[in-house]
Amino acid sequence: ISDQKPLGCWSVKHGQVLTCPVVCNFETHEYIAVHDDRVLRIWKNEDINLDKAFKATLSADVHRIHSLPHGGPLVLFRAGGVRTLDVLLEAPQQEIENVISDEAIRWSEAFVENHQPVVIFATEKDGDFFVYVQKPKQESVHKYRLEPQELSQPLSFTAYLKNQTVTLLCLCSNDSVYQVLVPLQQDPEEEEQTLPRSLLLNLSVSGSVLKGTSLVVLDKDHVAVLGSLAAPGQDPKECLTIWNTKFQTLQTSKELPLGTSGQLWCYEEKFFLTHGKVLTVIMYKCETSSLAAAVGKLKDSQTPGVSSCVNWNTLEDEELVVSFQSQESVALRAESRMNLRSRRSGVAKMQPGNLSAGQHSLNLKDAPTSVLESKLRQLMSEAQTPDSQASIGSVVTALANRSKTNPKYYPQSFLVQLVETRDLSYSLCPDLMALALEKKDMYLLQICLQRFPDIPEDITYACLKTFLSISEGHLRSTEVDLDSVICYIDVEIRNKEVKTEVVENGFNAELDQDMCDTEIPNQTRSKSDGESCPVGPQRAALLNAVLHSAYSETFLLPHLKNLPAQQAILFLRYLYYLYVKCSEKVNTTLPGVRSPTINQVMDWMCLLLDAHFTVMVIMPEAKELLSNLHKFVRAQVRFYSELNKIEGSLRELQRLNHLRDSQSYSIEVLEII
Fold first, then answer.
1. For residue 501, what are the contacts with CB-CB under 8 A and spacing of at least 6?
2. Which H/E stretch holds residue 558?
3. Strand pairing report for 264-266 and 154-162
4. Residue 560 DSSP label
5. Who wins on pLDDT, 589 or 258?
6. Can you name the residues that pair with 523 across neighbouring β-strands?
7. Where are the alpha helices (DSSP H) in 385-456?
8. 3-class secondary structure, 141
9. Are 76 and 67 in contact (CB under 8 A)?
10. Locate the Nucleolar protein 11 C-terminal domain: which residues (predicted)?
């Protein structure tokens, strides 16, 4: 998420359906999926085609796969049977016992207890709920019945294991959370035991009632509940809430105006939830539960600003958001920071030296410009630490917001110095490049493209479009770093008669005359197409920065299709120029600092042709360019084909050189047929 780049994507065939969540095997670093209820697939990151991955057809329908960090994957079948993955793969068609009858599994989880895997799942039948505890390696199954309660049905479950007892929490339809203690040991001769439910938490505060849909356990004293908060006389609002179960208080809440799917996940002190069309990741930190903290009266100077159970005011309070656009694209942005303390929580006095990133952002929001710049100078003089980077990101956001509200204010020198001297990223200061695009600050955009590793594809495209559309006259008066072009583009003398070499890594006019419709003179001529740069050095340097920017082809291609045809042709001319320049050198490497590599040039050429090929084919001004590009590539293919023919002879010559007596003199003639 931090680099906003998809690491892999796999698809089942048309008509096939993934029927349970995919999990990762922590021991083998493999992915495990089930499609069409019974077909098991296992593959690794380097596997591309899911259809060619390992396949096993099972004898019963799978409900869920649970993967334990130190216990291996466990497969839970819809009939209640459980197998470890290793045992299942030894005989995929082995018979699976029916543990439940006419019951539907509503929830399941897996734990490790005394180095043994344990699976617990809840089922429902005719309004009655049951809990099963299975230890697959011991082949033991225990069944319990949940104590029924009038006018209340469980909506969601979660559980944790402690002291050989599973504590099961039930979010019920009467807006309450109940606790059920499930023992892992049971007398085999004892009849089905009924487990009592005890009230843990009422989800109401100050007359407002939370209609919960999902809950997770944070620690022994705190739970998070996702749901709809309904206040008297007001419309319900979806929100994420944190509750202290020890003192029965609402610690903090966050409104989610775009709506959610009703699902909430928690992993390694991070919340995962869908908010509108985005996946939101929120990091949290639970403080030690105390009555003072629960009622917002905590005044411990050692924990400045923390008056609720969750400390949202760190770098992690920036939500990392993955957007699912219409083309299934992924982009990362940071939503505005919010102070998520409960209304009943008091704010302790803060020590300036201990302010976190979120607190910096809040304190500097309305600060005078001189204070902002002074704070930025102070931060830039400090050694780089994660906290200082987060604070700088907050200050940059404040400066960017100030520039948007006051068009006359734009601290360009501060921002440039910041990017050049600090290891920042797009996600730390997402408003910076948008501001630079608005101000048409070419130099700031150039260094951001060179240094930020996580720029979204839509921002990369916006930079490319700006670089191609801005006039040459404006660029000549613009400060741009020319280090990447000065060694292969003549900045002073352009559009003059020059001598060109006949051979360009296997390409010459005589060799290709039998394949070309137009004869190309091999003597003095005016540079054109691949021989003269179609853009000025400033524009070339800016385009080189785009070529260096990381991207995902899947998500950049839809944006490139929106590039105007004339700009696409100009960009392709420049890429063709770079391609020819790279091919002139034996090592296909351009001189200079941060110059594009031949792989980057070829990748972008392919992207551009994929996005605009139909348009370019029918445009007269692109015909000659495509023809020349085709001839050049075809000539190179012929050249490398000829090299492949003599590869065996060259290897034989190399072998003879090793066998030759270095002290003797000889003349050898090798005939290459």
1. 584
2. helix 553-560
3. unpaired
4. H
5. 258
6. none
7. 386-405, 412-421, 431-439, 442-451
8. strand
9. no
10. 388-671
CA distance 67 to 23: 6
Whole-angstrom Cα Rg for the chain: 33
Is 129 in a helix, a strand, or coil? strand
Whole-Å CA distances, 399 to 88, 158, 348, 402, 463: 59, 44, 26, 5, 21
Instruction: Give the separation between CA 336 and CA 357, rounded to whole angstroms.
Output: 12
- Taking CA atoms, 462 is separated from 321, 459, 469, 544, in Å, by 20, 5, 11, 15
263 token code pair: 């699902």
Alpha carbon of residue 9 to chain centroid = 12
Given a contact cutoff of 8 angstroms between Cβ atoms, the answer to whether 181 and 147 are in contact is no
Q: Pick from 289-303, 332-346, 537-551, 578-592 the range whose average pLDDT is largest.
A: 537-551
Name the phi and psi angles at 64, rounded to 5: -160, 150
318/604 Cα distance (integer angstroms)? 33
**Confidence grade of residue 288 (pLDDT, cut at 50, 70, 90):** low
Residues 7, 24: Cα–Cα separation, whole Å: 14
Q: By CB neighbour count within 10 A (0-12 exposed, 13-18 middle, 19+ buried), where does 387 fall?
A: middle
The model's confidence at residue 664, banded by pLDDT at 50, 70 and 90, is low
Is 73 within 8 Å of 88 (Cβ atoms)? no
In 3D space, the residue among 223, 252, 257, 251 whose CA is nearest the CA of residue 238 turns out to be 257
> Which candidate, 84, 12, 3, places its Cα nearest to that of 43?
12
pLDDT at 639: 83
Q: Taking 80 as the threshold, does the pLDDT of residue 317 lie above it?
A: no
Q: For residue 531, is pLDDT > 90?
A: no
Spatial separation of the C-alpha atoms in residues 268 and 84, rounded to whole Å: 25
How many C-beta atoms lie closer than 10 Å to residue 599's C-beta?
Answer: 10
- Interior CA angle at 453 toward 558 and 538, to 5°? 75
CB-based contact 159:168 (threshold 8 Å) = yes
Helix (H, G, I), strand (E, B) or coil at 528: coil
The CA distance from 543 to 537, in Å, is: 10
Closest among 34, 91, 93 to 67, alpha carbons compared: 34
Alpha-carbon distance of 93 to 310, in angstroms, equals 49
Measured in degrees and rounded to the nearest 5, phi and psi for residue 112 equal -120, 125
Q: Are 170 and 180 in contact (CB under 8 A)?
A: yes
**Which runs of consecutive H residues, i.e. helices, occur in 77-197?**
85-90
Neighbour tally for 500: CB within 10 Å: 13
User: Do residues 153 and 147 lie in contact, with contact meaning Cβ atoms separated by under 8 Å?
Assistant: no
CA–CA dist 183, 266 (Å, integer): 24
Distance CA 435, CA 452 (A): 15
Give the dihedral of Cα atoms 209, 213, 214, 215; nearest 10 deg: 20
Q: DSSP string spanning 122-176?
A: EEEETTEEEEEEEETTTTEEEEEEEPP-TT--EEEEEEEEETTEEEEEEEETTTE
How many CA atoms within 13 Å lie on the side-chain side of 561?
Answer: 10
444: which DSSP letter? H
